[in-house]
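TICKET: design request
STATUS: open
ATTACHED STRUCTURE:
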């Protein structure tokens, strides 16, 4: 399945300039590529006025839309992560859960 390098534009919500993430290619640098992509995504999200702590539902939708359909499909198959120790229930938002789920998948196992 080919990944499009065309920018995705949502009709509502934040208008980000980030390209979809390519989950294919060299597995050795997948984690580094994910971290770089995610850093750009969050910077663009904040620049466009979306604060994930205040609008976690919109931030989650933006994450899945802008990451691309392959990442969204993958996200839907991954197990739900447990709430990290020390994280308050009200801070364990849908956005934090999705972010953690994808991070666990893409980053190398320690």
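STATUS: resolved
RESOLUTION: sequence designed for all positions
ATTACHED SEQUENCE:
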């Amino acid at each position: 399945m080919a990944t499009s390098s065309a920018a995705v534009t949502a009709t509502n919500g934040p208008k980000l300039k980030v390209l979809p993430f390519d989950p294919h290619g060299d597995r050795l640098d997948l984690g580094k590529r994910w971290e770089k992509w995610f850093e750009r995504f969050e910077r663009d999200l904040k620049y466009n006025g979306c604060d994930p702590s205040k609008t976690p539902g919109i931030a989650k939708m933006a994450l899945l839309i802008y990451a691309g359909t392959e990442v969204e499909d993958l996200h839907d198959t991954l197990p739900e992560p447990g709430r990290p120790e020390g994280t308050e229930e009200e801070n364990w938002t849908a956005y934090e859960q999705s972010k953690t789920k994808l991070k666990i998948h893409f980053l190398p196992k320690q």
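CLOSING REMARK: The chain has a mean pLDDT of 88. DSSP finds four helices and no strands in the chain.
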